[in-house]
């Protein structure tokens, strides 16, 4: 493992993507920044994080062993890695909100942004970016955000938390390397927030509907049993 520590950067994901396009990057190269000026979230959102308090990390992983249609398994492995690392630090209850938000006490403690490098229609590498709120003490105007400190009252060493997440990530990626996709999927579904419970969703038109989350498909669609007993699959942009 090779760790690159930066003070301030626009985005660790952008940095690592550029670096890997310019030169050969070792498997499990980890970029960690004290602060980001243009932290990116899912679906074009921004990721804001107080400097020096939280983890802002991107990891380069060779995923050429995976078929492109199985790329959601990288997301499952990452969510499991973060949730298990949190549990190792006695943070609980921890759940994964599909597709890959990590919740502690039903509030968001971590977000994941995965960017895949694809060549000739083949998966090559994954840049796994995650923000994990560690020692931040409050979130202005973000009542649904939390941190490890806010859950436990403790102060954590960022490096220790980082190493724990990377160790867990390697563990789940190694399971995928053995081909045991079902194990990772079962574990992911067992961590899924509101799995098997009735939930209310909003579709693209803003229409509310209720359904029961049943799991995810191999390609990462959320499977929801809706009122008329039909299992429907939803993409991130759809609910
Ligand atoms: C989300 O929940 O929307 C995903 C947030 C991902 C944020 C992390 S912080 C480190 C890495 N670099 C980025 O620019 N984004 C990710």
From TrEMBL:
Query: EC number(s) for this protein?
Result: 6.3.4.15
Q: Which UniProt keywords apply?
A: Ligase
Task: Please verify whether the record's keywords include Magnesium.
Answer: no
Every copy of the BPL/LPL catalytic domain together lies at 1-177
Q: Cross-referenced InterPro entries, in alphabetical order?
A: aa-tRNA-synth_II/BPL/LPL, Biotin_CoA_COase_ligase, BPL_LPL_catalytic
Write out the coiled-coil annotation as residue ranges: none
**One MF term in the entry's GO annotations:** biotin--[biotin carboxyl-carrier protein] ligase activity
- EC top class, in one word? ligase
Q: From the Swiss-Prot or TrEMBL record, give the protein name.
A: Biotin--[acetyl-CoA-carboxylase] ligase
- Source organism of the structure: Psychroserpens algicola
Recite the lineage of the species: Bacteria, Pseudomonadati, Bacteroidota, Flavobacteriia, Flavobacteriales
């Amino acid at each position: 493992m090779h760790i690159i520590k930066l003070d301030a950067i626009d985005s660790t994901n952008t940095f690592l993507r550029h670096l890997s396009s310019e030169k050969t990057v070792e498997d499990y190269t980890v970029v960690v920044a004290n602060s980001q000026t243009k932290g990116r979230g899912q679906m074009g959102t921004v990721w804001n994080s107080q400097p020096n308090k939280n983890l802002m990390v991107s990891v380069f992983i060779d995923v050429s062993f995976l078929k492109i249609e199985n790329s959601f398994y990288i997301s499952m492995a990452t969510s499991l890695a973060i949730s298990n690392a949190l549990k190792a630090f006695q943070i609980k209850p921890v759940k994964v909100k599909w597709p890959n938000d990590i919740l502690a006490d039903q509030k968001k403690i971590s977000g994941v942004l995965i960017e895949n490098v694809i060549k000739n229609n083949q998966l090559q590498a994954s840049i796994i970016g995650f923000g994990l709120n560690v020692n931040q003490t409050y979130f202005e105007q973000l009542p649904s955000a939390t941190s490890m400190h806010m859950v436990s009252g403790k102060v954590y060493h960022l490096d220790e938390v980082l190493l724990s997440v990377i160790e867990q990530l390697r563990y789940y990626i190694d399971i995928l390397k053995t081909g045991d996709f079902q194990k990772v999927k079962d574990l992911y579904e067992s961590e899924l927030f509101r799995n098997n419970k009735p939930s209310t969703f909003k579709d693209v038109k803003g229409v509310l509907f209720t359904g029961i989350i049943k799991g995810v498909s191999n390609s990462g669609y959320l499977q929801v049993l809706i009122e008329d007993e039909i299992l429907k699959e939803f993409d991130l942009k759809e609910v």
